[in-house]
Amino acid sequence: MGLSINQNIAAVNSYRNLSNTQNDLAKSLEKLSSGFRINRAADDAAGLAISEGLRSQVGGLKVAARNAQDGISVVQTAEGALTEVHGILQRLRDLGVQAANDSNNTEARANIATEANSLISELDR
């Protein structure tokens, strides 16, 4: 008397279909819970490559924007310094015109020279 093994083909097929459906459901739930269309390279390899390239470009653009902002800050600082220098030079010009006036005595001219020297030293600072 031999041993006979029977398989229930319908049950095996049903189990395989159930497993596939559960796997698909798990993938769908993962996408829904993460909010991403692509969670791993197996989901969409080409899409993942494109998104990583775009992510790299966005990072580069953020750095470029930060560099531009740094450049603007440098220019604003230089503008402030040049405005100050312009004011000093304008005052030196005024002092030069005032010193050229013949109605000034030596004390007034000495005071003008003292102020001019202090302005020049401020420029050299």
Give the structural class: mainly alpha
Fraction of residues in β-strands: under 5%
What overall form do the CA principal axes indicate? rod-shaped
- Helical residue percent band: over 70%
Task: Give the averaged pLDDT, no decimals.
Answer: 89
What is the makeup of the main sheet? none
What oligomeric state do the depicted chains represent?
A: single chain
Find the count of extended strands (DSSP E, 2+ residues).
0
Please report the distance between the alpha carbons of the first and last residues. Answer: 113 Å
Uncertain spans: none
Count of helical regions: 3
Radius of gyration: 41 Å
Name the helix and strand elements from N-terminus to C-terminus, one letter apiece. Answer: HHH
What does this structure look like?
It contains three helices and no strands. It is mostly helical. The chain has a domain of 33 residues. Helix 2 packs antiparallel against helix 3. The longest helix has 55 residues. It is rod-shaped and about 135 Å long.
Give the structure's gist in a few sentences.
This protein is mostly helical and 125 residues long. The protein has a domain at 9-41.
Write the layout of secondary structure elements.
Layout: H1 9-34, H2 45-99, H3 106-124
Which descriptors apply to this entry?
125 residues; mainly alpha; 3 helices
